[in-house]
Design brief:
Serine Threonine Protein Phosphatase 5, Tetratricopeptide repeat; disordered C terminus; globular; 120 residues
Length: 120
Amino acid sequence: MSSGGDWKEMFKAACDGDLALVEYHVKSGVDVNYAHPEFFSTPLVGAILAGQESIALHLLDRGADPHLVSEFDAMTPLQAARKVQLHAVEQRLLTLGAQASAPAVAARRSGWVFWRRRSA
C-alpha cells in the first residue's frame, strides 16, 4: 500500500526523530515492517541505530516486528538496541519476545548509507 517515496520519507523521519511525520505516514498506511529494496533496512532498526528511542518505541507500539532482521545493518532490533545502548528499547523488545541471536545476514553496502549515517 505504501509508495517508495512515502516509505523513504518515513524512514528518514524515523532516523531524524520526527515523530509527527512518522505518525503521519503510519496513519497513511506506510508499512512499518517494509525494507525498501534500495536500502534493505527497516525503520525500526534505522531509528534505533540513530539513537531515536521515542521513535523506536512508537514504531513498536504501531506494529513494528521486534524480530525482523534489518538486512543492510545485519542485525535484529535487539542487537541494534544493545549496540547503541537504548535500554528502554531493549527492555521493550525483550518483553515482546525478541531473541538475542539472529540468522547470519550479509550487510549490504551502498552510497546511501553515507547519507544516512551523516544525517543521523
